[in-house]
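Quick one:
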Amino acid sequence: MPVEIEMRARYDKETHDRLTARLEREATDLGRDDKLIYFYVLPDKLLKVTDNTAAGSAKVTLKHSKIGQGAAFPETEFPIAREDVAAAVTVLNALGFEPHMHQAYNQRHNYRFRGVEIAVKWSEAWGHHAEFEVLLDDTASDTAREEAVIRVTTAAQELGVTLMSEQELADFTAAFESAEQARKDQQMPFEEIEPQT
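Output:
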């Protein structure tokens, strides 16, 4: 299974505009890549069903780690038909994953800069943010993984973007998950209790 070396950054609109302008000038434009994503945040994994609205495709992905647990994300994914997205979500929910589900629409534009794929994104939960990624073969050595981390951090530094630490990512995702659970709890239907006679 391929391994993603992936790091993230969150930033304000001004940084977004500066980063996008620089990438437009100096990077390879890989195009718009908007997605509607159903995330299932599990204790040690991330499962997701993705409807790639920009590309007209869909897939199911299992990341064998989750955000805030290191930069290397082994992942398994397979394509599905876009018309099967709702069925995939229904199956996963029926298997008991529904309490772990979050839905998000990501506006996204992809670039390649110095051998690093950069997804410049916006979502309601994350605001303006970016993912910096190098995809490696699953047989990549520790040295290759370390070199990929250096490539990602060097690209981010050159672009003037501060990457989030693993602790910052863990804290952010924990706060998001807690807020999402509170929101879900508030939406639970009120069950009327029959009076005892």
